[in-house]
Amino acid sequence: MAKAIRFREVGGPEVLTLETVDLPDLGPGDVLLRQTAVGVNYIDTYQRSGLYALPLPSGLGLEAAGVVEAVGPGVSLVAVGQRVCYGTGPLGAYADRRVMPENTLLAIPDTITDTQAAGMMLRGMTVRYLIRQTFPVQSGMTVLLHAAAGGVGLIACQWLKHLGVTTIGTVGSDEKAALARAHGCSHVINYSTENFVERVREITGGQGVPVVYDGVGAAVFEGSLDCLQRRGMMVTFGNASGPVPPIAPALLSQKGSLFLTRPTLAHYTADRRELVDTANDLFAVVGNGAVKIDIGQTYALADAVKAHQDLAGRRTTGSTVLIP
C-alpha cells in the first residue's frame, strides 16, 4: 500500500486528494521505491487543469528521490538500499512509495541530497537540453531568459554564467529581481514595471539576442520575437501564463527569418544513454558548485493542494518539494 495524490476530474488545486492505493507486484525490471522527496513542477498544473489531457483518474508528478526497497527479476541498474532519483516520469511521483521501471532511475551522487535531487532533475535536465542542445550557447553570447527567478530560471542563470554567457532575465517583482541577480543573472528586467522589449534592445545596443528561452508563454511570446536578432531562435518550452496563440509562419520571416521551436525533455532523453548523459552533466555542475539548487519551499505530501495554490499564485521561488 502507498499514500498518493490523485485527481478524478480536471480543475483547480482543490481536485487533488490524498488516497491510499495498492502497489502492483514487481515484474521484470521493476523497482520498489520508498520516496523521500518529490518535485513539483508547472507541468503538473497543466495536467491537473486539463491543459495537457490525461486519462482520469490519474496520479501526478514526474520527479522524485528515494531509496530502493526491493527489486524485481532481472534488475541490474540499481540495488536495494541505493539512493536514486528520476526526472522524466512515469506519472505518479506524488506518493510515498511506488513501483518504477529501472531504466528511468539514476543513482544520486554522494554530493547531492535527496531534497536537492527531487528539486532539480526535471528542471536541471531541462536547462541542460535547452542551453547545450536546442540552442547550444557559446561563451560571450547574451541571451534572454524569461522567469529568471523560477525553478528552471535559477538553475539556468547559474549554468549560463558558468559557461561565460551573459543573461538578461525577466521577473515579476523586485524581490524576484534580487534573487535572479544573486544567482548570476547579469541584467534583470521587472516586466511589471518595465517594457522588456525596449530594455533588451537598450542592453544589447539595438542588436537583440540570438535566442530567447521562454517558459512563460502567452504573456511574453510576441514581445520576445521582437527581442531576437536576425535568424534568432525563439525557444518556447512552457506555458506559465497560458499557451502561446497560433501564429502565421510568415510572421517569422517578417521579423528576421526567425526560428521557432517547442521542445520537450522527453525528446532529449528518449533512450537510456541520452538520459544518463543529460543527468551526468547536471550532477557535474551541481557537484562542483557551479550550480546551487535553491529549494524555495517544502510542503508535506498531504499539502499538495497548498503547493499548487502557491505555484499558481506566483508565491514561490526556486524549486518546490513535497516531503512524504
From TrEMBL:
<dbReference type="Pfam" id="PF00107">
    <property type="entry name" value="ADH_zinc_N"/>
</dbReference>
<dbReference type="InterPro" id="IPR036291">
    <property type="entry name" value="NAD(P)-bd_dom_sf"/>
</dbReference>
<dbReference type="GO" id="GO:0005829">
    <property type="term" value="C:cytosol"/>
</dbReference>
<dbReference type="GO" id="GO:0035925">
    <property type="term" value="F:mRNA 3'-UTR AU-rich region binding"/>
</dbReference>
<dbReference type="Pfam" id="PF08240">
    <property type="entry name" value="ADH_N"/>
</dbReference>
<dbReference type="InterPro" id="IPR013149">
    <property type="entry name" value="ADH-like_C"/>
</dbReference>
<dbReference type="InterPro" id="IPR002364">
    <property type="entry name" value="Quin_OxRdtase/zeta-crystal_CS"/>
</dbReference>
<dbReference type="InterPro" id="IPR047618">
    <property type="entry name" value="QOR-like"/>
</dbReference>
<dbReference type="GO" id="GO:0008270">
    <property type="term" value="F:zinc ion binding"/>
</dbReference>
<keyword id="KW-0521">NADP</keyword>
<dbReference type="InterPro" id="IPR020843">
    <property type="entry name" value="ER"/>
</dbReference>
<dbReference type="GO" id="GO:0003960">
    <property type="term" value="F:quinone reductase (NADPH) activity"/>
</dbReference>
<protein>
    <submittedName>
        <fullName>Zinc-containing alcohol dehydrogenase superfamily</fullName>
        <ecNumber>1.6.5.5</ecNumber>
    </submittedName>
</protein>
<dbReference type="GO" id="GO:0070402">
    <property type="term" value="F:NADPH binding"/>
</dbReference>
<dbReference type="InterPro" id="IPR013154">
    <property type="entry name" value="ADH-like_N"/>
</dbReference>
<dbReference type="InterPro" id="IPR011032">
    <property type="entry name" value="GroES-like_sf"/>
</dbReference>
<feature type="domain" description="Enoyl reductase (ER)">
    <location>
        <begin position="11"/>
        <end position="322"/>
    </location>
</feature>
<keyword id="KW-0560">Oxidoreductase</keyword>
